[in-house]
Amino acid sequence: MSIKSGQNLKIFAENNTQKTVVFPVKNAKNVAIQIHAEENSQLDVYTIFKGESSMKMDFDIQKNATVSVFHLTKNAEFSQNDIDITLSGENANFELYGLIFGSENQHHHCQSKIIHAVPNCTSRELVKTILSDKSHCVFDGLVLVKKDAQKTDSQMTNRNLLLSDNAKIKTNPQLEIYADDVKCSHGATSGQLDSEALFYFRSRGISEKDALQLLISGFAGEILEKIKDEEVKQMMSEKQ
Amino acid sequence: MKSSNQQPATSIEINNLCVSVAGKEILKGINLSVKSGELHAIMGRNGSGKSTLSNVIAGREMYEITDGEILFNGENIADWSPEKRACEGIFLSFQYPTVIPGVNNMTFLQAAVNSVRKYHGKEEFDAFDFLEIIKEKLQKVGLDERFIHRAVNEGFSGGEKKRNEILQLMMLEPKLAILDETDSGLDIDALKIVSEGVNSLRNSERSFILITHYQRMLNYIQPDFVHVLIDGKIVKSGGPELSQKLEDEGYSWVSNDEC
């Protein structure tokens, strides 16, 4: 399904169903998508950003439902994805995996707000960026655990690989917890390619270019292996 | 004794090599000539320059050659990239093999072997053929197949990392292999396996430089020559008996000779 600027969409994953939706978002701005995952449903959502695109997504995840979101950006000049998630039924699960490639003068924003409103829900967020040239990226992640959301289990991680001195990342992982019996973690790391690893590969005959590609694929691999849709996986695995 | 009358070719020749790291002179005029088929052991204390020597031969960029030259098969390798050196047949077994999360050991090994094959105009191995070849070598170094499906050196014990180095050595079949403290961190069983691996690769075409602190690996691998490196210089050279003397008497008698 191709998405147009200003489009408003509502998606329902009905009770006890399993569904996968793939959204190619190419030169589409101010797109709004509301997603309801009803009880015992399973939903995989892929958003693939191209060109200059911005989108707002709202998720309501009900009892025993599981939602996985893959936020993927490659060869996009500008991307903005604001994702709001409410875990509103017990034993609901949410996962967000992000993989953002930035190059040239690109700007990318990935914003997420995960609200744990009820007890016994889990959320996982792992966003990786690979930034070269003068590309910029902003990661803004908030996990909000409400007072009643005891036994919440939440992890949020942002990892950034900066391939040039002029690439920039601004990362802001936040936790706000009002319950007293929860397991939550959050963190961010940013770094350059490991020069030791590069030398190790080159000392085995692998050219500098191929070694870089291997190391970048290795960094992205943790996200790629989570992608169940083979076509999407292939597209994200190809050389930039 | 060599059965042929022909003199073996010189594999690597190091002439008056002086090397600095961050402005500090580490190697102060190394002279060393290793012929094809020979195994030379270089022994020395920590800080004597052993690892600098092995890294500079492999082409690590942080080392600056301030004087002298390294000739490999008669060619000066100063301007060769690390990958060119590897493709031409120089192999370094790392003292501390690098852990590379996310990159599968098999992907890495296949990329390495195929890069070298491509350089020599040979056909590259596909994944199927490669797996067959590597399975056989895995046995020789006592690693089971799951090691090649894990990330490079990630979660490997010290001994497993060193065996993984020897596996790479077996796969790449270099002309010159430098083993930088391959014995460190090995228990006695792993030491035997690694030594057997090295011995099985010795032939008249391949030369070895074995860098070590201790005599213990030389109980399993018989060197043709032993050199003692102290403060960036080779101060003594001899046969295998030299390593035993060092083991018995330490390094002080050599350094005293010098003074």
SS-derived structural category of chain B: alpha/beta
Provide the CATH architecture of chain B.
Answer: 3-Layer(aba) Sandwich
Average pLDDT, all residues of chain B:
92
Biggest interface between chains? A-B, 22 and 30 residues
Compact summary:
The complex is a heterodimer of chains A (240) and B (259). By secondary structure, chain A is mainly beta.
Describe this structure in words.
The complex is a heterodimer of chains A (240) and B (259). Helix content of chain A is 14%, strand content 55%. With 240 residues, chain A is mainly beta. Chain A is globular, with a radius of gyration of 18 Å. By secondary structure, chain B is an alpha/beta fold. Chain B has a single domain (10-258), classed as Rossmann fold, CATH 3.40.50.300. Chain B is built from eight helices and twelve strands. In chain B, a hairpin with a 2-residue loop joins β11 (225-230) and β12 (233-238). In chain B, α4 (127-141) packs across α5. Chain B starts with 9 loop residues before the first strand and ends with a helix. Chain A binds chain B through residues 194, 196-197, 199-208, 210, 214-215, 217-222, and chain B through 58-61, 81-83, 85-87, 91-92, 94, 97-98, 100-103, 107-108, 111-112, 115-116, 119, 151-152, 168, 172.
